[in-house]
Amino acid sequence: MSILTTTPSRRSFLKSATACLALPYLDAFAATGKSSAAELKRMVFLGQGYGFLPEFYPTQGGKFSEIGLTEGLSPLKKHQDDITLLGNLLNVGTTNPHCGSLTFLTGVANEGRTVKNGAISCDQVAAERLCQNTRYSHLTLSTDDNAGHGQCLSLAWNKQGSPIPGINTSLELYDKLFSAKETKEQVMRRIKTRRSVLDGLEVNARSISRQIASSDKEKLDEYYQTIRQVELGLKRQLDWANTPKPKAPYGHPETIDGESEVKLMFDLIALAFQTDQTRVSTYMMPSQSVLSSMGITIPVHALSHYNISEERKVNAGYRDKKCMELFGYLLDQLKEKKDLNGQSVYDSCVVAYGTNIKSAHGIKDFPLFLSGGGIKNLRRGESVKLSQDTPLANVWLTLLQQAGILIDRFSHSTGALPQLLV
Asked: For 42-58, how does the pLDDT look when each residue is reduced to its tens digit (9 = 90+)?
């Protein structure tokens, strides 16, 4: 018997007693018409624990198509027309170069793990407006590898100025998004035995697939394939979790590593946006584990003192490129996922990626990457040199306003930045 009614709902599709699975938007579920692409906004904030080499930054402003990309930025070649690199920013609340993320989204000085004056992070301001009808009010992701981030649990801070604990692993995030009725042990056991959260839905999937448009079938197939790929990545992670790493004479072993963990997190962020489980996410990204996955044994903090030796400077350059590769991977995932409007999830996103540190331990004139189609008139494809010591809070205020949040001030902002727009 078909599970479809005259106007099927996404909920009616789910009959499994062991899985709580969100579906991507399908035309078949659009009883009242498609959502307005202009109204739908999503925001993701990424915090990197350390800065980059001086050579990483373009020496002048202008279109990347004209001034070119530096060696450090070269992994973003395919996305060069979709990224904006802001320069000359200052975060007034940043005083400690070893705490690159502590005030990244608040702009207010911290004492330990409590923000003075009850400051809220800008992602939470966005979540109050954008996530009123989603399953989760926000997805706050973090890492146990907090080198360079400071004494914070995540990038997010609530109205009371208290830190919001983050989800630290891709397995925990997978569990939250797709296995709400399973214990962690059940999730691990299922994945290790190569069973998928999708297995219980196979009958219903075949039933609905016979009656929906080919475009919807393609969306479902793409969605299922992505989930299975994530599960294979998690299985590999679990297989190697308790296996000591051998001492290799060169390179690094082909096991799950820091880089793969970041990619799994990015896969799941894109899926969470595609299924509209949330519209706001933050991710405090690991540094040391990614460095280790590259076969670099120098501690990441020591690597930031790159002037000590040529070896450190060379390896710091490798790290810069790896960070851009991972950033490009997230952009790929957002561009590949399609929503109800037939556009990529990327087209409704505002993506911000940065750090409170420029190079070494410098906390002035640091950079910020912006991307996504969520702000249609954002200047893209260029290096934008702002006025010296432009408050970072002015950028957050501009992005929040453009996303439809009606505020005229955020943190220590002095005003929006019309120069970000065309």
From this structure: 999 999 888 899 999 99
